[in-house]
Design brief:
globular; 434 Repressor (Amino-terminal Domain); mainly alpha
Length: 343
């Protein structure tokens, strides 16, 4: 049902004429008639008042289905920035309501987790900024502790870095869902992070049986490189490079590998290959990684060029000329320029 039909339905249920509704909102009866005939639509600023007047939610004015509402929430959560308390509670309430229905529980629960993560990440960015200011202001150990916490900094010792609780959960989950490649990959990541390489190798073999992508080879490389098995590590790189040369995600993975091996030229070549291979709308990520690598090797002019290309990608591919993503890139360009000036 379209909004015009919905307004007509609500008006007639209330026993109101078009003239009465028009009078309540300071418009002409002809305007109300055009709303109801879908010739034009109420101004966006009137929607909250219309919803209050009829005693329904704004979503109800549009007669949104459950799927529509979840789509709108997912789109909202794809935007960056902190969600205010009122909107947060509204989204949380909608998702918890949908979760009571077994048919909608899976997606609603995922989106609820995404909502909480969205807020946590937004607050983490605020915490990082505050912690950096605190370090600059006083530089005491408490400020550095908050800096490490907000940035997820590595720290010495098993207490700070262990992922044993998550690992235990994932092993139990895979025991019940042995074909879950996502769970297996996450388990291997955390086993490697905790230097539990023998276990990681066992689970990599399991992943190879259920995942035909380059991912098992990538883990084979990580484990071999970490345990000093250089020949096996190099062989894994070769198989990825030759067997998945047309896969942009594989190329970005190789860029990460070459970067870790300080083979920066090869890393930039892989970024360039990935940038060509991605379908439209192309992401700006390969250019951002290339810019980062270029700055590491003191090719700041190249870094600025890559950042400017990334801005062009955002404009041409996504129609984005402002906002957090654009501001972040411009900030990097400005930072490089100011650093060069100081030198």
């Amino acid at each position: 049902m379209k909004i015009g039909n919905r307004i007509k339905e609500l008006r007639t249920k209330r026993g109101l004429t078009q003239e009465a509704l028009a009078s309540a909102f300071g418009v002409t009866p002809q305007t109300v008639s055009k709303w109801e005939c879908e010739v034009n639509f109420p101004d966006v600023s009137l929607l909250p008042d219309l919803s209050v007047f009829f005693g329904v939610s704004i979503d109800s004015l549009f007669s949104l289905t459950r799927a529509d509402r979840l789509d709108r929430i997912e789109n909202r959560l794809s935007e960056s920035g902190l969600i205010d308390d009122a909107e947060f509670k509204q989204i949380e309430g909608i998702l918890k309501d949908v979760m009571t229905d077994p048919e909608g529980k899976g997606r609603a629960t995922t989106l609820l987790s995404k909502l909480y993560n969205h807020q946590a990440q937004a607050y983490s960015r605020l915490a990082s900024s505050c912690a950096e200011d605190a370090v600059e202001s006083c530089g005491d150990s408490a400020a550095f502790f908050e800096l490490a916490s907000s940035h997820g900094s590595a720290s010495f010792g098993i207490r700070g870095n262990s992922h044993r609780s998550l690992i235990a959960f994932l092993i139990d989950y895979i025991g019940r869902n042995p074909d879950s490649a996502d769970a297996c990959a996450m388990l291997i990541d955390n086993l490697i992070a905790d230097c539990r390489y023998d276990e990681a190798e066992i689970w990599t073999s399991h992943l190879g049986k259920i995942d035909a992508t380059f991912l098992p080879l990538a883990y084979r490389y990580k484990i071999s490189a970490a345990t000093g098995k250089e020949e096996i590590a190099i062989a894994a790189i070769a198989v990825i490079a030759n067997g998945f040369a047309d896969d942009p995600e594989a190329m970005m993975l190789l860029a990460d590998i070459y970067m870790a091996r300080a083979e920066y030229g090869k890393a930039i070549e892989c970024c360039a290959a990935a940038g060509r291979q991605y379908a439209s709308p192309k992401p700006e990520d390969p250019l951002l990684v290339a810019a980062h690598i270029s700055e590491l090797i003191d090719k700041t002019d190249d870094a600025v060029s890559y950042y400017r290309e990334a801005l062009k990608i955002l404009k041409d591919e996504w129609g984005t000329v402002s906002g957090e993503r654009v501001d972040a890139i411009r900030k990097e360009i400005k930072r490089i320029a100011s650093a060069e000036y100081r030198i």
